[in-house]
């Protein structure tokens, strides 16, 4: 997946500024999905 390679390249950047509203929207949706998964996730060590 080329996305992984891109992320590795970005690690050295101090700050990344997204000017595309579409990316902001996708990121927001991604966070919502993540939070939803965390809420529904039951750790096996409990």
Q: Could you give a short description of this structure?
A:
By secondary structure, this protein is mainly alpha-helical. 63% of the residues lie in helices and 0% in strands.
Query: So what's the overall shape?
Result: elongated
**Any idea what the radius of gyration is?**
15 Å
Kindly state the percentage of residues in helix: 55-70%
In total, the number of strands is 0
Mean pLDDT: 73
H and E order: HH
Uncertain spans: none
Describe this structure in words.
The chain has 46 residues and is an all-alpha fold. The protein has a domain of 29 residues. Helices cover 63% and strands 0% of the residues. The chain is elongated and about 40 Å long. It starts with a helix and ends in a 6-residue tail after the last helix. It comes from Funneliformis caledonium. This is 7214_t:CDS:1.
Record keyword descriptors for this entry.
46 residues, mainly alpha, 2 helices, 0% strand, elongated
List the helices and strands and how they pair.
Elements: H1 2-10, H2 21-40
